């Protein structure tokens, strides 16, 4: 019986096609920030602890079913009180909850810590149904803050440096949205007038561990086109990011206007990471004729 159960378990794990690392993450995306690593560790060990408790409970249930099944019409000896057992049933769950609370509090304090001085500040502005990313420490030659806004045909790209501390300040201009990048393992609601709604709308990440492109989403139902509020985080190495920011400040000689995000990225020589348009997600297709009506063309 045990061999069969073990074989079934191994086949089940193998059939998922998951690597050891993926199995230990229990479905969480691969982390790209130190904060995300800490949250993933908390999640992993919490699940392992829950599985251990579950196996013990399942074992006790099975043991009771097998060894305490009805064997005769004689009524078994009735026990009114079992003080040692009752103490165990109180102490063990209390210890488990206390341990989980401790590690949760430690992780939460680390994730929400803002004591470090940020290398880059980004203001994230959410609105129906789009995002604007502003860099308040950088201004164009015209004196305007460098910013990126999405359009109907262009997903907004938030360009950030890898290996630098980044501070995000969030606000909404209409309803509640939610800033979520799965690889950051961190979701933060975006409120209108956060100072009046008693919301902590600022958070930091120690760094993005590696250059890359990561999809971002709104994780709060915010209206009819909530599903189209996607964006992309583009993490570049420090030199490429600095070049990108400098280009965003300058005027494009061809257009007579400051470089847009796409124009600046196309001028930075960093391969696929400098693709002018988002690569991890696409705009919502608003063409009514993009698909045929159900059953069209069928006889």
UniProtKB/TrEMBL annotation:
Entry GO MF terms: copper ion binding; cytochrome-c oxidase activity; oxidoreductase activity
InterPro entries according to UniProt: CcO_II (IPR045187), CcO_II-like_C (IPR002429), Copper_CuA (IPR001505), Cupredoxin (IPR008972), Cyt_c_oxidase_su2 (IPR014222), Cyt_c_oxidase_su2_TM_dom (IPR011759), Cyt_c_oxidase_su2_TM_sf (IPR036257)
Gene3D superfamilies, sorted: 1.10.287.90, Cupredoxins - blue copper proteins
Ranges annotated as spanning the membrane: 44-66, 87-105
Entry keyword Cell membrane: no
Entry annotated with the keyword ATP-binding: no
Enzyme class: translocase
Reaction(s) catalysed by this chain's protein: 4 Fe(II)-[cytochrome c] + O2 + 8 H(+)(in) = 4 Fe(III)-[cytochrome c] + 2 H2O + 4 H(+)(out)
Pfam families: COX2, COX2_TM
PROSITE patterns, A to Z: COX2, COX2_CUA, PROKAR_LIPOPROTEIN
Record EC number: 7.1.1.9
Required co-factors: Cu cation
Membrane topology, as annotated: Multi-pass membrane protein
Gene Ontology cellular-component annotations: plasma membrane
Compartments it resides in: Cell membrane; Membrane
Residues in Cytochrome oxidase subunit II copper A binding domain copies: 117-247
Record GO biological process: ATP synthesis coupled electron transport
Cofactor note: Binds a copper A center.
Keywords, sorted A to Z: Copper, Electron transport, Membrane, Metal-binding, Oxidoreductase, Respiratory chain, Translocase, Transmembrane, Transmembrane helix, Transport
Family: Belongs to the cytochrome c oxidase subunit 2 family.
Known function: Subunits I and II form the functional core of the enzyme complex. Electrons originating in cytochrome c are transferred via heme a and Cu(A) to the binuclear center formed by heme a3 and Cu(B).
NCBIfam families on file: CoxB (TIGR02866)
UniProt name for this protein: Cytochrome c oxidase subunit 2
Organism: Lentzea alba
Gene name of this polypeptide: coxB
